[in-house]
Diaminopimelate epimerase
Amino acid sequence: MKIHFYKYHGAGNDFIMIDDRNQTHQLTSEQISFLCHRRFGVGADGLILLQNAEQYDFKMLYFNADGKESTMCGNGGRCIVAFAQQLGIVSKQCQFEAIDGLHKATMLTDGVKLEMQNVNAIVVNDNQLFLDTGSPHHILFVDDVSLVDVNVEGAKIRNSALYGKAGSNVNFVETDGNSIALRTYERGVEAETLACGTGVTAAALASHHQAKTKLTSIEVKAQGGNLKVDFKWDESQKKYYDIWLSGPAKFVFEAYIQC
Ligand SMILES: N[C@H](CCC[C@H](N)C(=O)O)C(=O)O
C-alpha cells in the first residue's frame, strides 16, 4: 500500500498524520509500528488518522509508536488542528471528536490552543500524584529534572504493579512556582519523548493542586519546547475545568511510503 502522509511535531513530540476522510487506511498494528520506527520507517512517537465526523469538523484516532490505539494525545490534538487547516477543512476555530470526547481548538499565530477535558480526580501519595488528562499520568516532583535517568526510572514506574497491565505515562516535574520544567516517559513509546501534551497539562494541574504554584496560567518547559497551560479550579466541585493547552504545531514534510 502506498501511503501519503504528513509529518508534524508539537514541541518535538512527533507524529505521522494521515488524511483518512475516505477511511481507506486499514492499517495493522505491525504497519503502524513499522511506520513509526526510527530506522526502518518514517520515525514518530505516534500516528494520527483524521477522519470525517457527522456533527463536528473531524475525528481524531491516535496510535502510539507501538502500533496500538491509545488514549488522548494533547500534542497530537494540537497538530491535527494545524493539519486540518493545511487541508482546508477548518479555519481559525474548530471542534473535533477524540477518544476522550470533544475538543475545541483555536489557531494561534505561533501554534494551536486546545481545550482539554475537565479533571476531577487526583490521587496523592506524598510527592507523587496520579491524574488523567485524557491519558493517565503519574507525576513525581523532583528538585532537578536534568539529573533524572528518565528511561530507567520512568520504565520502573510505568511497569510497576501500581498501574497494572494498562500502565501509565510518567512525568518528572520541577517547579519554582513561576514556571514548570518536566521530562516524560511515555507509555506506548516506551521511552522519553521531547514533550507530552497531556503530561504537560497534568504537571500544571498537579503543581497547582499541591500548592507549588498559585498561577492558573503557567509556562511548562519540555525538552523539545515550551507550552502553556491555562485552567480554572472549582473549589465547590473540587475540579479543574476550562483547561487549555497552547503550544507549537509544526508541519515538517509531506511524503509517500510503501507499507
Ligand atoms: N503515550 C500516551 C498517549 C500520547 C500522549 C502524548 N503524546 C501527548 O501529547 O499527550 C498514552 O498512551 O497514554
